[in-house]
Amino acid sequence: MKVRQGNELYATVLAPGETVKHTLQPERHAYVQVARGSVTLNGNKLATGDGAAISQEKALELTGVEDAESPAVRPWRERGK
Hints:
The chain is an all-beta fold. It has a single domain (12-70), classed as Jelly Rolls (Sandwich). Helices cover 0% and strands 54% of the residues. It is built from no helices and nine strands. The two termini are 22 Å apart.
């Protein structure tokens, strides 16, 4: 597995109504994967197995809808930037 320099990896377990927030640095992107349960990501519902690639957002807000586990929020910068 290749790991690009400057990546960050986060994991979270959320009960219904619990929220976590993550601020993205300028020109950073992120990917969120829902391992189980369901969440809202910036107001959009995601369920088990769903993933979302995020660009042009300043922050991520994940809120548990059903008991949820999200193993990956990975901010990255495009190559050459």
